[in-house]
UniProtKB/TrEMBL annotation:
<feature type="binding site">
    <location>
        <position position="2"/>
    </location>
    <ligand>
        <name>Ni(2+)</name>
    </ligand>
</feature>
<comment type="similarity">
    <text>Belongs to the HypA/HybF family.</text>
</comment>
<dbReference type="GO" id="GO:0051604">
    <property type="term" value="P:protein maturation"/>
</dbReference>
<dbReference type="InterPro" id="IPR000688">
    <property type="entry name" value="HypA/HybF"/>
</dbReference>
<protein>
    <recommendedName>
        <fullName>Hydrogenase maturation factor HypA</fullName>
    </recommendedName>
</protein>
<feature type="binding site">
    <location>
        <position position="89"/>
    </location>
    <ligand>
        <name>Zn(2+)</name>
    </ligand>
</feature>
<feature type="binding site">
    <location>
        <position position="76"/>
    </location>
    <ligand>
        <name>Zn(2+)</name>
    </ligand>
</feature>
<keyword id="KW-0862">Zinc</keyword>
<dbReference type="Pfam" id="PF01155">
    <property type="entry name" value="HypA"/>
</dbReference>
<keyword id="KW-0533">Nickel</keyword>
<dbReference type="InterPro" id="IPR020538">
    <property type="entry name" value="Hydgase_Ni_incorp_HypA/HybF_CS"/>
</dbReference>
<dbReference type="GO" id="GO:0016151">
    <property type="term" value="F:nickel cation binding"/>
</dbReference>
<keyword id="KW-0479">Metal-binding</keyword>
<dbReference type="GO" id="GO:0008270">
    <property type="term" value="F:zinc ion binding"/>
</dbReference>
<dbReference type="GO" id="GO:0016530">
    <property type="term" value="F:metallochaperone activity"/>
</dbReference>
<feature type="binding site">
    <location>
        <position position="92"/>
    </location>
    <ligand>
        <name>Zn(2+)</name>
    </ligand>
</feature>
<feature type="binding site">
    <location>
        <position position="73"/>
    </location>
    <ligand>
        <name>Zn(2+)</name>
    </ligand>
</feature>
Length: 113
């Protein structure tokens, strides 16, 4: 389950930020998860609760923002919604698509005390 190691890296970021910004507790974390990132949201929630136990983020709320997958179609010259990588353009059927969002995972915001 790679969500476990993802949560560990999230915690690492939180600890680094705590040192840098001098806060001692994290109350909430907003995490953006792309539709194609392969991250399972339920697994992420479960792992997060386990990983942050007895850390500066113990009891913190995990808010997940799902980012839809989008690509730029070279033939249509516009942004189109896709379900997964290597999908055809839903408008013209072209495979000349460049994924522009949906495969990322990042921390968007923190609430700290
Ligand atoms: Zn197209």
């Amino acid at each position: 389950m790679h969500e476990m190691s993802l949560c560990e890296s999230v915690l690492q970021v939180l600890e680094n930020e705590a040192k840098r910004q001098h806060f001692s507790q994290v109350k909430a974390v907003w995490l953006e998860i792309g539709a194609m990132s392969g991250v399972e949201i339920e697994a992420m929630r479960f792992c997060f609760d386990v990983i942050v136990r007895n850390t500066l983020a113990d009891g913190a709320t995990l808010e997940i923002i799902e980012i839809p997958a989008q690509a730029w179609c070279l033939d249509c010259a516009q942004t189109v919604a896709i379900q997964q990588r290597y999908d055809a353009c839903p408008h013209c059927g072209s495979y000349q698509l460049q994924v522009t969002q949906g495969d990322e995972m990042r921390i968007k915001e923190l609430e700290v005390t």
